[in-house]
Design brief:
Elements: H1 2-18, H2 30-52, H3 56-81, H4 83-104, H5 114-130, H6 136-153, H7 155-163
Length: 171
């Protein structure tokens, strides 16, 4: 999560160096699509539990529901929102798939930290919206906050990398 917060903060500036001028406008859609990819990754984790249980039918059905929701919202929203509508539709499809899969595995002992997830989602949305500002102070503040969160929330991982021992690592 912290990596997409960091990428979202810098995506507008990075696009200057990474793409031609004709593709620069894509920075507007990247934060929504990055969040959709995050949800897809979590959904894939939950989907692997279906495979472990040899319940591929549920994996298939949750994927189909996500795809149907994506297509319906894309069809409805593209007229009014353009590419933002498509991006939001993709996000909504992955939200639906994740909710279906979390609900389908409620009997499994998996801790999904909704409070932490909600907090990081709010931080992500705030930092992503700061990209809309051309103010350099807002940009520097959001990048500083992103870097702080990245290092603070991953401090145990960095300790593990630096020391090479796993005794202090908490998941």
């Amino acid at each position: 999560f912290t990596t997409i917060i960091l990428l979202s903060c810098m995506c507008r500036k990075l696009m200057y160096f990474m793409v031609e001028d004709s593709f620069f406008e894509a920075w507007k859609y990247i934060p929504i699509l990055l969040y959709a990819v995050l949800l897809q990754s979590i959904s894939a984790f939950y989907g692997s539990l279906y495979l472990k249980r040899k319940n591929t039918k549920q994996a298939f059905l949750s994927s189909i529901w996500g795809a149907v929701i994506t297509m319906c919202f894309a069809w409805l929203s593209v007229m009014w929102l353009g590419l933002h509508g498509i991006s939001i539709a993709i996000l909504l499809g992955f939200i639906a798939m994740l909710v279906i899969r979390i609900y389908g595995h409620r009997d499994y002992a998996i801790n999904f930290y909704f409070e932490k997830f909600a907090f990081l989602t709010i931080v992500y949305a705030t930092i992503s919206m700061s990209n809309l500002s051309d103010n350099i102070f807002v940009f520097l503040l959001s990048c500083t906050l992103s870097l702080f969160l990245f290092f603070y929330l991953n401090k145990d991982l960095f300790k593990l990398i630096m020391t090479g021992t796993q005794s202090d690592f908490k998941v």
